[in-house]
Design goal:
Elements lengths: L2 H8 L4 E5 L4 H16 L8 E6 L5 H15 L8 H6 L2 E5 L5 H10 L9 E5 L6 H10 L10 E4 L7 H14 L5 E3 L7 H11 L13 E9 L8 H26 L8 H14 L8 H4 E7 L1 E3 L2 E3 L17 E7 L9 E7 L6 E8 L19 E7 L3 E9 L7 E7 L12 H11 L8 H20 L6 E3 L24
Parallel strand pairs: 1-2, 1-4, 2-3, 4-5, 5-6, 7-12, 8-17
Antiparallel strand pairs: 7-13, 8-11, 9-10, 11-12, 13-14, 14-15, 15-16
Helix pairs in contact: 2-3, 2-12, 6-7, 7-13, 9-10, 9-13, 10-13
Length: about 500
């Protein structure tokens, strides 16, 4: 290995501690992603992983659990020896997140046995436990030496503006900003990253990406599932905190940002913050015109009857927690002034679907009004994030025949070839954590401005406790969401 490469890898962490290693996030996302990095040869030889959980297991018990996870979560066509190499990296640490002795035992097990002294602490835990873990890391000396170790925090970062600021102050007491990785896995998805290339590497697109040509923007994250076993968290959070404040607001910034001077972490995040700062504040009297919430009742999804939200396990029977939210924002800058951005997310919708839909304005001249084609549908650019990752443009062409009729042609701009597989977002993000690239992670001022944007909605809904609209499971949400539209010809785009 050459000197430059050696110097670079010496700055990489050699220890990766997963708090909450037996939880859903670790099982469904982190461990399969780490295995794929192993399969790709991207983990250094001295890279070790500690699984921290309260279960009274041995390392052998943990490895048996890990084998079961990987059997169901990863493609089994990997080279011989990869699983054995991966399993050899692990050590299991039994402990309680609130017990300082568990952290001291962890620290004793992490005593440097190699030249590497950097550690990643991944908080794959409930947001309610963030404070306890951060304080106990400090008490056990695991935040030292200052500036070396890295801490990864999942969303949501805080419950509102004030709690986010308190959590950030606590973090900064013990870690530098460069050590803190606030993760939003949507930013690691190929389509979201490809949006930057789509916009800024194509002169065909960028000149049209503004208020002169775009009628409105829709960002939808629809989930067919319910709350599963997350009632304890979700019934306090709701869709606005759980999804819109982080995932959808981040997608909005990527769609609306100006070209950064360079593809560097702070340059990218500077432009995203400018977008958030330019969002028009929502006055208290205008909340109903800009935001809609609702809760799912019983219904039918894929031929199966599902229960309503208030009938889910551990949910209060009179809960008014929103499982659907739709919000309209305006960005008051030169590029977007007057263009509405409609953001929508909900559970128990007909299908899993995350999509950015950009609708263009009608042509200024009604050229076809005296032909059989009196009205033509608008053009769209569609960016599907899940279940498919692709980009598509809809344009009009003339149908063959004697009359002037058109049909919509979809121009597929998918970046995947037939023999290629999309990279899982967590693979890209975990590799960035290991290599110290913070471009796809969230700086605190992004978090802070996003909370400032939605805080008026949160505070208004807190005092409106008597009633919440409903929608049947298996539908695209409540009819009330349609009142957000500025014009009668605007409707929700539900599918590609």
């Amino acid at each position: 290995m050459n000197d430059a490469k050696m110097s670079q890898t010496e700055n990489f962490p050699c220890l990766f501690v997963i708090f909450g290693a037996t939880g859903d996030l670790a099982s469904n996302k982190l461990l399969p992603a780490l295995f794929e990095l192993e399969n790709a040869g991207r983990l250094a030889d001295n890279f070790s992983i500690v699984a921290f959980s309260r279960r009274e297991w041995t390392t052998d018990d943990w490895l048996e659990h890990l084998r079961e996870i990987l059997k169901n979560k990863v493609d089994q066509s990997f080279p011989e020896g990869v699983p054995e190499r991966f399993f050899a990296r692990f050590r299991y640490q039994q402990g309680d997140l609130n017990d300082i002795e568990s952290y001291r035992a962890l620290a004793a097990g992490l005593a440097p046995g190699s030249a590497c002294s950097r550690t990643v602490f991944y908080l794959a835990i409930r947001p309610a436990d963030f404070v306890a873990v951060i304080r106990n890391l400090k008490a056990a000396g695991l935040n030292e030496p200052r500036g070396m170790n890295r801490v990864v925090i999942e969303k949501p970062f805080g419950e509102d503006l004030e709690s986010a600021q308190v959590l950030n102050r606590l973090l900064h007491q013990h870690f530098d900003e460069e050590q803190i990785y606030r993760i939003d896995h949507f930013l690691g998805k190929e389509t979201v990253q490809n949006l930057l290339v789509f916009r800024f590497a194509n002169t065909l697109i960028e000149p049209l990406w503004n208020r002169n040509f775009i009628d409105h923007v829709q960002i939808t994250v629809a989930e067919s599932g319910g709350i599963e076993k997350r009632a304890g968290y979700y019934d306090r959070a709701g869709a606005l905190r759980d999804m819109l404040q982080n995932h959808l607001m981040q997608l909005l910034t990527v769609v609306a940002m100006e070209p950064p001077p360079a593809l560097e972490a702070d340059a990218l995040r500077d432009e995203k913050v400018k977008v958030l700062r330019s969002i028009r504040p929502i006055a208290k009297r205008a909340i109903h015109a800009h935001a809609v919430r609702a809760q799912y009742t019983h219904g039918n999804i894929d031929g199966q009857v599902v229960a309503g939200y208030q009938q889910e396990d551990n949910v209060e029977r009179d809960s008014i927690t929103e499982t659907f939210v739709a919000v309209k924002f305006y960005i008051d800058n030169w590029r977007w002034r007057g263009v509405p951005f409609y953001l929508r997310t909900g559970k128990r919708m007909p299908k899993q679907n995350s999509m950015i839909a950009i609708r263009f304005k009608h042509p200024p001249q009604q050229l076809f009004r005296e032909t059989p084609l009196e009205w033509i549908a608008p053009n769209w650019v569609l960016l599907s994030i899940q279940p498919e990752e692709l980009m598509r443009m809809e344009i009009h062409v003339k149908q063959p025949g004697l009359d002037m009729n058109t049909r919509v042609m979809q121009m597929n701009a998918s970046f995947l070839k037939t023999d290629e597989q999309a990279l899982d977002a967590y693979e890209a993000l975990l590799l960035d954590v290991i290599e110290g690239d913070r471009s796809l992670f969230i700086r605190f001022d992004e978090v802070e401005w996003a909370w400032q944007v939605i805080d008026p909605i949160l505070k208004h809904w807190v005092v409106e406790r008597e009633y919440i609209p409903t929608y049947p499971a298996g539908s695209w949400g409540p009819a009330e969401a349609n009142r957000l539209f500025d014009n009668d010809d605007q409707t929700w785009r539900n599918e590609l």
